[in-house]
UniProtKB/TrEMBL annotation:
Protein name per UniProt: Purine permease
Family: Belongs to the nucleobase:cation symporter-2 (NCS2) (TC 2.A.40) family.
Signal peptide span: none
Provenance organism: Streptomyces griseoviridis
Gene Ontology molecular functions: xanthine transmembrane transporter activity
One cellular-component annotation, GO: plasma membrane
Transmembrane domains' residue ranges: 12-30, 36-57, 64-84, 90-111, 118-139, 159-176, 183-201, 221-240, 306-329, 335-355, 367-389, 395-415
Highest taxon above the source species: Bacteria
Membrane topology: Multi-pass membrane protein
Principal location class: membrane
Classification via InterPro entries: NCS2, UacT-like, Xan_ur_permease
Length: 441
């Protein structure tokens, strides 16, 4: 149980630590605060995993699900950080929005399973693709260096380290099997850090300064603040997250030969949303099921939810050990950039995989995808596109994921629901989406 539980942690570790690194860098946190934020996200991921696997009352799907920080919230949270004049208020505003979105999602969980038909693969595929595309510029920025104003920003050394890390990850994925293949990204980060040592870009200061034992002090970054635009933005993310979790539960239910019914989906969504609502108390972000671990369950055939619960225990212990959390702060930013290309690119690829099954032979669905992606990439390709809008509105508009999701949902309603009879392919979408996400990740 210990080794297989640890394998689940290894398969999703890079995915858990990446969001706090991105958001923390956008806010300009110090190395110590970045370590604290990373540890808090590990700790809350463990608590959310306990809720999902062990369950309490009607909370928890009681399936072998690993929960952690969702990528869907990264772009909106960085947009919130960018629009906040006083950076010390950024995290409190984000935490307040996550708490409200989590509580609203918890209330909506029982009816969401019935409404999921409005989120077929043409919608979820577009949104997941936008998540990956929105995060790729972050990886490119990391590859150039930590500080844009530094003399070595974009230097041959930094780009070379990023390329070397990317090459290591690709070689591991191509020529290894099993457990080593599953943790190729993690091994690539370690190898890239070792390669970077002779170039003097590796800083072991965060490890030396970190305590062996610590606790994520509640509201370490300040009491939560509630800003309407931020709440709306992360409520959209919560809808996206719940949609993806529903597809994941359906896929995993088939793998473990326990098909997820409406009650299971509602209980699983309650665990996701309650974990998200409680996470900011310990300085964590929005939580969601990690689809990459579904592939691990299918590969190993270890279907016990208690094994995954042990993995959740490891996450909690890592969150209570600042030294463990500080290790990721040692990794040079260019090395993270090289691994991020694979990590974020795979998210976009999983969205494309979902779109393959979305019935793109229909003109209506082609239009939905085309317009949704076009609207979603506006903040990436034209960052000043909404410069004339109020600052509060830009928190939502500058998030391509939020605007792309709303566009996809509205267009899907107009073209495929209002006045039209849905065909069989659309009806069976949740399982198809879940299978594609699990296979791609």
């Amino acid at each position: 149980m210990a080794t297989t539980g640890l394998q689940h942690v290894a398969a999703m570790y890079a995915g858990v630590v990446a969001p706090p690194l991105i958001v923390g860098a956008a806010i300009g946190l110090s190395a110590a605060d970045l370590t604290f934020l990373t540890g808090a996200c590990l700790f809350t991921a463990g608590l959310a995993t306990f809720l999902q696997t062990i369950g309490v009352w009607k909370i928890g799907a009681r399936l072998p699900f690993v929960n952690g920080v969702t990528f869907a919230g990264v772009a909106p949270m960085t947009a919130i950080a960018a629009s906040t004049h006083d950076k010390s208020d950024a995290l409190p505003i984000i935490f307040g929005a996550v708490m409200v979105a989590g509580l609203l999602g918890f209330v909506a969980a029982p009816v969401f399973g019935k409404a999921v038909r409005f989120f077929p693969p043409v919608v979820t595929g577009s949104v997941i693709t936008l998540i990956g595309v929105s995060l790729l510029p972050v990886a490119f920025g990391w590859a150039q260096g930590p500080v844009p104003t530094a003399p070595d920003y974009g230097s041959e050394t930094n780009l070379g380290l990023a390329a070397a890390t990317l090459l290591i990850v690709l070689l591991l994925r191509r020529f290894t099997r099993g457990f080593v293949k599953q943790i190729a990204v993690l091994l690539g980060l370690v190898a890239g850090t070792v390669v970077a040592i002779p170039f003097g870009v590796t800083d072991f200061g965060p490890v030396a300064d970190a305590d062996v034992i610590g606790f994520p002090t509640p509201f370490h970054f300040g009491a939560p603040q509630f800003q309407l635009a931020a709440i709306v933005s992360l409520c959209v993310v919560m809808v996206v997250s719940m949609t993806e979790s529903t597809a994941d539960m359906l896929a995993l239910g088939e793998i473990v030969e326990r098909p997820a019914d409406e009650r299971t989906i509602a209980a699983g969504l309650r665990a996701d949303t309650l974990g998200s609502a409680l996470s900011p108390l310990f300085n964590g972000f929005m939580c969601s099921a990690f689809a990459q671990n579904i592939g691990l369950v299918a590969m190993t055939r270890v279907r016990s939810r208690f094994v995954v619960a042990v993995g959740g225990g490891f996450l909690v212990l890592m969150g209570l050990c600042p030294v463990a959390a500080s290790l990721i702060a040692v990794v040079p930013r260019p090395v993270l950039g090289g691994a991020g290309v694979v990590l974020f690119g795979s998210v976009a690829a999983s969205g494309i995989q979902t779109l393959v099954r979305a019935g793109l032979d229909k003109d209506n669905n082609i239009l939905i995808v085309a317009v949704s992606l076009a609207v979603g990439v506006i903040p990436i390709t034209a960052p000043d596109f909404y410069h004339a809008f109020p600052q509060t509105a830009r928190i939502v508009l500058d998030s391509g994921i939020s605007t792309g999701c709303v566009t996809a949902v509205v267009l899907n309603l107009v073209f495929n629901h209002l006045g039209h009879q849905r065909d069989a392919q659309d009806v069976t979408h949740p399982m198809e989406a879940g299978e594609e996400i699990a296979a791609a990740r």
